[in-house]
Amino acid sequence: MATTAVSSSTTSATSAASTANSAATTAAANRAAAQKLLSSLGAGSGVDVASLAQNLVDAEKTPQANAINQKITKNEARISGYAAISFVMSGLNDAFTALKDQNNFSSLTASNSQPSAFTVTTTAAAVGGSHDIEVMQLAKAQRSISGGFSSAGVPINGGNAMSLTLTVGGKAAPAISLAAGKDTPQDIVNAINAAKTGVTATLVNTGDGSANPFQIVLTGAKGAANNFSLATSYTQIDGSSSSSPNTGSLGLNFTGNAADQVAADAKVKVDGITFTRNTNTLTDVLPGGTLDLKTVTSGSASLSLVRDTTAIKDKFKALVTSYNDAASMLNVVSDPKSTVDTYGATLVGDSTARSVKAQMRALVQGVSNTPGTKITAMWQLGISTDRSGVMALDEAKLDAALNDNFEDVVKTMTGNTNGLSAYSSQPAGFAGEAMRKLSKLIGPNGPLLTNTQNADTQNAKYKDNLSKLDTRMTALLARYNKQFSSMESIVGNVNSQKTSLKSSFDGMMSVYTNKA
Q1: 317-341 tens-digit pLDDT
Q2: Residue 333, domain member (yes or no)
Q3: How many angstroms separate the Cα of 92 from the Cα of each of 1, 81, 447, 468?
Q4: Distance between CA atoms of 165 and 387, rounded to whole angstroms?
Q5: Spatial contact of 54 and 80, defined as CB atoms under 8 Å apart
Q6: β-strand partners of 233
Q7: Are 29 and 154 members of one domain?
Q8: Are residues 112 and 164 in the same domain?
Q9: Which end is more exposed in the chain, N or C (fewer Cβ atoms within 10 Å of the end residue's Cβ)?
C-alpha cells in the first residue's frame, strides 16, 4: 500500500504555481525559437532544431503529465489517510473487544487455604464472600485390568469365534461378536472401541520381564453410575457355546488386579451442604464459580472471594485513550491546514472520513440495547465526550458504578453474553455492538478497504495513461525532428541559391559598369 501523502494545502498551491511558471517559460522559449527560425529564412540557418522540437513536445506533454501526476498524488494521499483511519479504528475495536464479554468482568480474586486440593475460577456472575469447602471424595472411573498374554496376536480361544457383552450402569449393550481368527488381544481391544459403549480398551505392554507382559485395560466414564461388567461367550470347537475358552486356550479374565479401580462420584461440602457429582469439575455448586477438584482436603478449606476492579478500570481507560487517538487522527486527515507529515490533510472533504466520525460518536451515545436497572448509558459510567469530540473518564463515577451496580455495568456493556461474533444479531450491549460495527468498518468489505482498492485501481489506470502519453510524445518528437530537418535542408538550399544568384548579379553588374 502506498504511503505518500500531501502534507498541506500550502504545498499543493506552491506546486501548482511552480508548474504554471514552468509552462510559461517553455512557451516563451518556443516563441523565441520560432522567431529565430523565421529570421533564419533570410539570414542563414543556425537554429537548434533539436532543442526546438523538444521544447514543443514538452509544451504539449507537461500540462497533461502534471494533471495525471496530481491525480496519482491525490489518490496516494487518500490511501495513506484510509490506512491511518483503519489503524486507529482497529485499536478502538480492540479496546471495545476487551469489554464485550461477560467473562471480561471476572474481577474476583480467590484466596484458598488449601490450593493443592482444589482451584477456583470465577465469572462476572460470581459474588464476593467467604466459603468453607471440604473435598471428601474425588470422582473416579472404573478401571479393570485383564490377566497377561504373551503377545498382542496370540489367540485366546484357539482361533474360534467368540462374543463379548458389556453392561454399563446396569444396562447391557448389544453383544460384540468376534469372527473366527479374530480372537487376539488386539482384536478384542479394537472391537470394544468400535462398539462405542462408553468403555474404552487399551492394550499395554508392561515390560515386566514375565512370559505374559501384555494386558487389556478397560476404562469407563467417571461416576458411580458408570460402573460396568464384561461377560464373555466362547464358541467351542464342536460349535457349542460356553463361558469358558477352548481347552488349552488362554481365555479372557479380569481377576482383581491390584491396579483395578472402582467407579465413584465426587463429594464436596460447600458451607455445610454436601454435593455429589460424577465429575471433578463442578460448575454448579458455587454461584458464578467453578471448582476443579485435585484431592481430598484436610478438614475444611477457607475460600475468600474479593472483588478487585483495578483490571476493569484499566480496560475503560484504554478505551478512552483509543477513542481519543481515533478522534485525533480523523481530525488530522480532515483538516486542510494540517501540517502533519504523511497523513495531514489527506482526506479533506472526504465523505467516508465524515461518516466514520459520525459512526464513532454514535458508539458511545444513547442508551444501551441491554440496559441495566440503574446503569443504562455511558455517562453513568463516568464516560463523556465534549463538543470537540474528546472523551474523558470520571474515575470516581466509574468506581461508584462498579462498586454499587456491578451487575448493571456488566449487562449494559455486554448484554451478559460471551463469545458473540461480529455476525451475530443478538443484543450485546455497548461493547458488543461497537465491536460488530467496527469489525465491519475495517473488514475486507468495509468502506475503508474498498476505497483504498478503488484508489489503487485508479492509479494503475493513471500510470497506464502516463505510459501512453510518453509513447505519443516520443512519436511526436520524431515527427518534429523529421520536419525540422527537412526545413533545415530547404533553408540551406535557398541560402545557397541566394548566394549563387548574388554572385551572378554582382558579376553582371561589374561587366556593365566596368567595375571590378
Answers
A1: 999 999 999 999 999 999 999 989 8
A2: yes
A3: 22, 17, 17, 44
A4: 78
A5: no
A6: 163
A7: no
A8: no
A9: C
Q: Whole-angstrom Cα distance, residue 130 to residue 141? A: 32
Give tens-digit pLDDT for 338-382.
989 888 999 999 999 999 999 999 999 999 999 999 999 999 999
Residue 361 and residue 433 in one domain: yes
To the question of pTM greater than 0.90 for the whole model, the response is no
Confidence of residue 11 (pLDDT cuts 50, 70, 90): very low
Q: Are residues 274 and 289 in the same domain?
A: yes
326 plus 444 within the same structural domain = yes
Q: What's the CA dihedral at 183, 187, 188, 191 to 10 degrees?
A: -120
In a domain, 484, yes or no: no
Domain range enclosing 330? 9-101+315-372+422-448
pLDDT given at position 43? 40
Q: Please give the Cα distance from 285 to 118 (Å, whole number).
A: 13
| C-beta separation of 349 from 333 below 8 A | no
The residues facing 201 across adjacent strands are 218
**Cα–Cα distance, 137 to 282 (Å, whole number):** 13
Per-residue confidence band for 123, with pLDDT thresholds at 50, 70 and 90: confident
Does 159 or 107 have the greater pLDDT score?
159
Please list the residues that pair with 145 across neighbouring strands. 217
DSSP code for 332: H
Tally Cβ neighbours within 10 Å of residue 213: 15
